[in-house]
Amino acid sequence: MRHAAGQPGAFPEIERTLIAREAIAARVHEMAAKLCNDLRDEMARTGPGRIVIVPIMSGAMILASDLLREMPLKLSLGLVAVSSYPGTSLASKGAVIQSELPTDLAGTHVVVVDDILDSGQTLELVRRIIAEQRPASLRACVLLRKRVSRTATTPDERLAEYIGFDIPDEFVVGYGLDYNGYYRNYPEIATLKREAL
Q1: What would the DSSP string read from start to end of 117-174?
Q2: Which strand ranges, in their side-by-side order, compose the sheet holding 172-173?
Q3: pTM for the complete prediction?
Q4: Banded model confidence at residue 81, pLDDT cuts 50, 70, 90
Q5: Domains of the chain by start residue, with CATH
């Protein structure tokens, strides 16, 4: 088992790696390239406009920072905090917005960035609120999509246009995803040992 920063045993609770850091980096590069092309095409059709990236904190902070470095476009950043997995919860408890969304999104090209598409409640809520501001375009990018039955009324393809990886219905940590506030800095997507949960 590999560990971050060359520190053997730095994360002894990790059970197994599902997605290696090299695969994540390659996929983020691909998603950024596709996203840039689509935004350029959109602005060619509708005219130039401001691009606003809206990461959902805290889980999407690492994906967002890596994605932004791969996007050679003029853009701005607007953060939103949403809670759905409080503390040691292993299942979504429902999406609750904990901070104000940007309020100047009318006519802009908005890209929501989230770590994982699980129940769909978080993205559905954030997209609905942003759409009420009438942006010129609205897209969402997620690193992971769990293979689960969604209760959301919006189909997957309308919740996130850009999806990094499909994963089994397992609780995962790393690359921004946490358990009880830990493991966000683990550089890969991994599962935890049963005794750690």
Answers
A1: ESSSHHHHHHHHHHHTT--SEEEEEEEEEE-----SSS-HHHH-SEEEEEE-S--EEB
A2: 14-19, 189-192, 172-173
A3: 0.86
A4: confident
A5: 22-165 (3.40.50.2020)
Residue 165: half-sphere exposure toward Cβ, Cα within 13 Å: 20
The DSSP letter of residue 177 is: B
First-last CA distance in the chain = 19
Query: Which one from 118, 156, 169, 178 is the annotated catalytic residue?
Result: 118
Nearest of 87, 104, 9 to residue 50 by alpha carbon: 104
Count CA atoms closer than 13 A to 196's CA, side-chain side: 18
pLDDT class for 6, splitting at 50, 70, 90?
very low
Ramachandran bin of 28, using left for φ above 0, alpha for ψ from -120 to 50, beta for the remaining angles:
alpha
Residue 118 bears catalytic tag: yes
Q: How far apart are CA 186 and CA 171, in angstroms?
A: 14
The answer to whether residues 28 and 22 touch, using CB atoms and an 8 Å cutoff, is no
Closest by Cα among 20, 4, 42 to 164: 20
